[in-house]
Specification:
alpha+beta
């Protein structure tokens, strides 16, 4: 079976903040809906394995891809947060340049 017609053995659920910042990935067995999130990270990416709940075979390529995606997600989370803060600072800077320096409001 080629890669385009192959069905992965687990479903991936992504958690994002505002649809932009990736926060987490959760993996569930597609057959029994058993949570495989921690299990996937502990497996060898070069050897096929079976679901600990229903014993369905999980291909080594699926395990390796899940581990890569999770590790890249861990990198993209802080990068996304920093970019979001930089965009916010740029917007504040542009507004300040357009309106000019304003005196501070006195609260008393």
């Amino acid at each position: 079976m080629d890669d385009s017609s192959r069905v992965p053995a687990f479903a991936v659920h992504r958690v994002t903040l505002g649809g932009l910042i990736p926060l987490a990935r959760y993996y569930n067995c597609i057959h029994c809906e058993h949570d495989l999130t921690d299990w996937v990270m502990k497996q060898s990416p070069t050897e096929s394995s079976t679901c600990p709940n229903c014993e369905v075979r999980i291909d080594a390529r699926d395990i390796a891809q899940a581990q890569r995606d999770t590790k890249l997600g861990c990198l993209w989370t802080p990068v996304s947060i920093v970019c979001l803060l930089l965009v916010f600072a740029a917007v504040v800077g542009v507004v300040w340049l357009i309106t000019g320096p304003q005196p501070l409001l006195r609260l008393w």
